Amino acid sequence: MTTNIPSLADARVTLGDSGLQVCPICLGTMTFGEQVDEAEAHRILDRAVDRGVNFLDAAEMYPVPPRRETVGETERILGRWFAADPTRRQRVVLATKVAGPARGMDWIRDGAPDLKPEHIRAACDASLQRLRTDVIDLYQIHWPNRNAPAFGNLYFDPTKDQPQTPIDGQLQALGDLVQAGKVHAIGLSNETPWGLMSFLRRAEALGLPRVVSVQNPYALVNRVVDNGLDEVLHREGVSLLAYSPLGFGSLTGKYDAAGADPAQPGLGRLARFERMRQQRWARPETLAAAREYNALARRHGLTPTQLALAFCYRNWRVASTIIGVTTLSQLDEDLDAWPVALPADLLAEVDAIRWRLRDPAQ
């Protein structure tokens, strides 16, 4: 099921109107410094770049799961990789993120409930220092600085609104960073259609930088993007960066034999970190849906990983798919899935499963 698809080294897409040319596969780095030690992280980075990946994504709060003892370590690992060979920084498009308001992490800005302009500017300076670079190519707000449904919360609850820095103030701070040459382009993450449109409208009204990308979950078990955000992205020319395309491992088949229990030792991050088993990716409904998609892949002669990744790689909505790995073999498996194309009848079966089960990892 392959077709005439450009190699990763030749395949490039432009993020919004930024001019940033990125690989359609992005290497996410949130495992670096927790599940992956520095030496292995550097080997993974070398292999990814050698195979044509030129896009890296990080965040000030990484690695995950976030802890006081490790916060910022992912960026430091990247910074030391850049410092060891200055040509590496020139070969990649570098993205990172400023954390939104406190979500139980009092070690970031003392748990401030509001992301203020001075926080954004200070966070960027700290990331630049850890990354050992003069400029961040894509700087993103990790989650909304307002009451909004995200990270598995299904509903908007207006009673939870509280005073917070409005979008104008956030945009002005990001614009200051662009004006200072510290940031090339700006993006959002875990954002809603209302949030994206509001950022776009206010940027136009104020003459401030326009959002070029949104980094949201997109996987067979979570296609919430298809429920309206995709129209906004398409009509406004904003690029989707799809994260968790393998559903925290559920779409690799590794949890199939464990039934509905993701805590079976040795299986992956859902088994290793109890707090992750409280998240949307470990819901019984998510694991049950994943097993159906995984079985569908096998019936069509594909591995579950190939189906899940090809669904994102070949999707018109997705500019770049963010993969997260802990080993070189996982990296190679994910990159080897790049040429896989999915026939129409298989995609129809995918949609039929979604019609029944919807988006259990929403």
Automatic annotation (TrEMBL):
A Pfam family annotated for this UniProt entry: Aldo_ket_red
Name used for this protein in its record: Aldo/keto reductase
Classification via InterPro entries: AKR (IPR020471), AKR_Detox_Biosynth (IPR050523), NAD(P)_OxRdtase_dom_sf (IPR036812), NADP_OxRdtase_dom (IPR023210)
Superkingdom classification of source: Bacteria
Cited PANTHER family: NAD(P)-LINKED OXIDOREDUCTASE SUPERFAMILY PROTEIN (PTHR43364:SF4), NADH-SPECIFIC METHYLGLYOXAL REDUCTASE-RELATED (PTHR43364)
Keyword terms of this UniProt record: Oxidoreductase
NADP-dependent oxidoreductase domain boundaries: 24-353
A single GO molecular function term of this UniProt record: oxidoreductase activity
